[in-house]
């Protein structure tokens, strides 16, 4: 399936019914989700794989992975309201995704092993280091982790994951954020981001 086809299908996905600013619940735009998943698929990390979407929200990345032919997809999030929408989105697109309720910050053992973890973690604008539990959980679950991070995060990531994994791919992109919360002053703000592929190196016990 071509990237534009994936994007058009993912545009049907509904967003957060009641987004939480502290948790940075921004809907991932279809154009970003489609390109992100396409890049992961081009490296053999989606099709036929067991894929876990950490902090799946309303399921756009999980649904996209299923559309691309993942062997099994599991989405995990703490927000039951968002998960209800995610299940509706999966049904709308006719894909099979298992959605589980868990807070990865406190229940890492609830995250199943995977071939690939995908995630759009909080950028840490509201809570410093909010992305770290996602990185830790991702590397505990899979040998390969794809994440959407603030542009320029490579140095931080290389330092944080040293001895556990390596940064193997960095792809620049733009993440348009629509006016969602009261502190937003623009209708759309384009945030520079990086799609980053982490590969576990096995040097240190996780």
Condensed summary:
The protein is built from six helices and seven strands. By secondary structure, it is α/β, with parallel strands linked by helices. A seven-stranded mixed beta sheet has the order 3-2-1-4-5-7-6.
Structure report:
- With about 210 residues, this protein is an alpha/beta fold.
- The chain contains 6 helices and 7 strands; from the N terminus they run ααβαβαββαβαββ.
- A 7-stranded mixed β-sheet has the order 3-2-1-4-5-7-6.
- The model has no long low-confidence stretch (mean pLDDT about 90).
- GO terms for molecular function: transferase activity.
- This is METTL5 family protein.
- It comes from Methanogenium marinum.
List the total number of helices: 6
- N to C succession of SSEs: HHEHEHEEHEHEE
CATH homology superfamily: Vaccinia Virus protein VP39
CATH class: Alpha Beta
Instruction: Estimate nothing, just give the exact number of structural domains.
Output: 1
Amount of beta strand: 25-35%
How far apart, in Å, are the first and last alpha carbons?
35 Å
Structural class: alpha/beta
Pfam families: Methyltransf_31 (PF13847)
Protein name: METTL5 family protein
Domain Methyltransferase: 48-120
GO molecular function, one term: transferase activity
